[in-house]
Design goal:
By secondary structure, the protein is α/β, with parallel strands linked by helices. The chain has 23 helices and 20 strands. The longest helix is centred in the N-terminal third of the chain and has 26 residues. The relative contact order is 0.11.
């Protein structure tokens, strides 16, 4: 029973896809990922070289320079929310790359941390519309993974021309401070470094942290000097009001004053080194991380950019899992879904992925039906598997490429609504760490059922191929104009002018919906957390799984001898 029957899966790329198709798919994906890299570079530049120079002239580092110096040398940081506000233009024809804040997972002395840093090259680190939500999203990720949270504060307060979009409301700026409190309540270490401006809400953010550092250029104030001059006619500097002399030596709102950015970052690194080390090595035992037999970079040739074309989902798993070893659980039922266990970075994780192409129809022996769709057997299977992962404390990764639920009289007679409700209940109440990836299609209620963002995965990643919507553009256009179409979806009117108007309306609707499916639209409005290249997906997921195992004591992680998975295997007649 203790044996986890991991078996090799996958094939060499030349056996999966021919050279011509491989070249075409790589070229099509390459164009999309070139766009991703270019836009990342654009966001990382903030407001440009002149603003970077302005920061350097003050003897300070930029937010991303601070992040790089804070993280362990030679390690990769994984940003979230890179494209929040991307393309939005605010009063004064101004943009806010990344919503003016950098949020990223980073390793500090081998411990994964969440770093939240104001981008001081963008309006002096001001909070724009969606900046508070982005910060809160990062805080929530940190709380659910119990990651030490580090604030690199250099914030001039709200971007006042748009204060109505960031100040009030349930997720307004004030909710950041509630999240500070909840992190503290849940025992998550918080460390704050104040590097410069720290005004109004920015002044509150560090205070609940366990350790607060200030440089000699830093100040924390409820109201800055300019506001006090206007309100009280007092001529005084912000440093006089709330600099380190005040808050370290008089108010006690900060703990330590340091001369500069470099020293402050070294102090934070020292503090993190004093925290408990990660438990990943304990759970790995004597077997470390091993690369797949088939390189993760080959994913770029496997997935067609045309969402209507199919691929072998197991070949995707073979390029994500350690040594391309996988234990498929309950393969006898719900053929349209694949679920099972593998190691990622040396640590066990559960996987659920939509099979593509055609699968057998258990209701009609010898017949086939489309995969990428949820039917009764598949829903029941992944619901049971999801609950088992939660019961066993295993991190679960959902890999979505789904068109939705089966529809029609037979589907309703089979009770798909009830089976779907059971799955949604499982996803809503499970307590294990859950991560979701939108590989390509994420359509309709299938997106919800496969643990989309409304069901609170710790993080949802999208690829450049992802398409998030209720339905495809053409289908939605037909539904919108349904009253003007016959049973064959042809326009009924014989009036030429009205026909032209309907045709134009349907085309406009289809084009608009297709545009809305762009993953950058989802990322801009925080309907997905980050867009990643296919080749970097394994690295990102490996890091997330290690974070899930980093801290002990706040959740149960069963050893493999007592997994519920073994019971499921017996109950469906699995071979020993």
């Amino acid at each position: 029973m203790a044996f986890v029957p991991l078996v090799p899966i996958g094939d060499p790329l030349n056996k999966v896809v021919d050279d011509r198709t491989l070249a075409e798919q790589r070229a099509a994906l390459g164009a999309l990922e070139d766009r991703l890299r270019a836009r990342r570079t654009e966001v990382h530049a903030g407001w440009g070289p002149s603003y970077v120079e302005r920061v350097h002239k003050k003897g300070k580092f930029t937010a991303r320079e601070r992040l790089a110096k804070l993280a362990d040398a030679g390690t990769r940081t994984y940003e979230v929310g890179t494209f929040v506000n991307y393309g939005d233009v605010f009063p004064g024809d101004q943009k806010s790359p990344g919503a003016g804040v950098v949020t990223a997972f980073a390793q500090v002395h081998g411990r994964w941390c969440m770093v939240i840093a104001n981008d001081n090259t963008v309006a002096s680190g001001a909070w724009w519309p969606r900046s508070p939500e982005k910060i809160q999203r990062a805080q929530m990720m940190a709380m659910r993974l119990r990651l030490p949270t580090i604030y690199l504060v250099d914030c001039s307060g709200l971007f006042l021309p748009e204060q109505s979009k960031s100040f009030p409301g349930a997720r307004g700026a004030g909710h950041i401070f509630k999240m500070n409190s909840l992190l503290s309540h849940n025992g998550v270490p918080q460390i704050a470094g104040v590097f410069g401006d720290c005004i109004a809400g920015g002044g509150y953010m560090p205070i609940i942290s366990d350790r607060v550092y200030m440089t000699e250029q830093a100040y924390m104030v409820i109201a800055g000097a300019a506001l006090i001059k206007g309100a009280k006619s007092q001529k005084i500097t912000s440093l006089d009001i709330g600099g380190p002399e005040v808050h370290v030596h008089q108010s006690g709102c900060a703990d330590v004053r340091v001369p500069d950015d470099e020293t402050l970052l070294a102090c934070i690194r020292r503090d993190v080194s004093r925290l408990p080390s990660g438990a990943g090595d304990f759970y790995r035992g004597d077997i470390g991380s091993m690369e797949p037999r088939f390189a993760a970079a080959e994913l770029a040739g496997l997935l067609p950019t045309d969402h209507r074309e199919s691929y072998d989902a197991k070949q995707v798993l073979a390029r994500l899992c350690d040594q391309s070893l996988f234990w498929e659980v309950m393969p006898e039922v719900g053929e349209e879904m694949i679920c099972g266990v593998a190691k990622l970075g040396g640590l066990y994780a559960g996987f659920i992925i939509n099979r593509q192409g055609l699968v057998g129809d258990p209701e009609r022996p010898g017949a086939q039906r489309a995969a990428g769709t949820l039917y009764r057997g598949g829903i029941a299977k992944i619901s049971a598997f999801s609950r088992a992962c939660s019961d066993d404390g295993i991190p679960l990764i959902w890999l979505q490429d789904i068109s939705g639920f089966d529809i029609g009289r037979e589907a309703e007679a089979h009770g798909l609504l009830a089976y779907g409700s059971s799955l949604i209940y499982s996803n809503s109440t499970n307590t294990n760490p859950v991560f979701t990836v939108l590989l390509r299609k994420a359509s309709g209620a299938g997106y919800y059922a496969m643990n989309g963002l409304p069901y609170d995965p710790i993080i949802q990643l999208s690829t450049t191929l992802s398409r998030l919507s209720v339905m495809e553009g053409r289908t939605l256009a037909i539904a919108t104009y349904n009253t003007k179409l016959d049973d064959d979806f042809q326009i009924m009117t014989t009036d030429p002018a009205e026909r032209t108007k309907i045709e134009a309306g349907m085309k406009e609707t289809e084009a608009r919906i297709e545009g809305d499916m762009d993953p950058f639209v989802a990322a801009r409005q925080m309907d997905t957390d980050e867009i990643v290249e296919l080749g970097e997906l394994r690295g990102y997921l490996s890091a997330l799984v290690e974070m899930a195992y980093q801290n002990t004591g706040y959740r149960r992680v069963k050893n493999p001898r007592i997994w519920s998975m073994h019971d499921l295997r017996e109950l469906v007649g699995g071979v020993r």
